[in-house]
Amino acid sequence: MINEQHHIHFRAATLEDKAALLNLEQAVVDAERPYNSQIKADAHYYDLDNLLQSEQASVQMAECNNQIIATGYVQIRQSKQSLEHDLHGYLGFMFVSPEFRGQGLNQKITQRLIDWAESKGIFDFYLDVYNDNQAAINAYQKLGFKPSLLEMKVNTKK
Question: Taking 80 as the threshold, does the pLDDT of residue 99 lie above it?
Fold first, then answer.
């Protein structure tokens, strides 16, 4: 499935990867801007220092020719008190460089994240995806995710 000329290497991200990850964060922001016109021009989504150093999180990535081509994280979070599970894994920073899409990288990174969280006793997982991002929804459904809660918004400023 993966092109033979490209050797893909998966590993946990480290603080040394932060600069490259910040660049990819902007690629995520740019990819999501069409789904939400209110995203700030200088938006930052992730607290990378915390995610990269916390024992409650794992950032995974794929590299090709020493370039990060795919990312994702799982963070162990407190669940709503109305739920049966006390903790859950929240998945984010799910990104694959456009030229590497369709090769199963998102699935492999997601599985690495789930395996890490399961090793810590976490078996419930959540993520956010824009309602109009059908490609992402399809990818997550292939992994067994199902829609559970739809966030709705309105901007009343005219």
Answer: yes
Gap between the Cα atoms of 22 and 14, Å rounded: 13
Kindly report the number of other CB atoms within 10 A of residue 127's CB atom: 16
Is residue 69 within 8 Å of 63, Cβ to Cβ?
Answer: yes
User: Looking up tokens 């994280």, which residue turns up?
Assistant: 73
Task: Give the pTM.
Answer: 0.91
R_g over Cα of the chain: 16
Q: Which residues contact 156 (CB under 8 A, 6 or more apart)?
A: none
For 13-41, write each residue's pLDDT tens digit: 999 999 999 999 999 999 999 999 899 98
How far is residue 139's CA from residue 152's CA, in Å, rounded to a whole number? Answer: 22
Buried/exposed code over 59-94 (b: 16+ C-beta within 10 A; e: otherwise): bbbbbbeeebbbbbbbbbeeeeeeeeeebbbbbbbb
What tokens appear for 126 in the block?
């959540």
**71, containing H or E segment:** strand 67-78
**Domains present along the chain, CATH in parentheses:** 8-142 (3.40.630.30)
Helix, strand, coil percentages for the chain (3-state, nearest 5):
35, 25, 40
Does 5 score more than 70 pLDDT? no
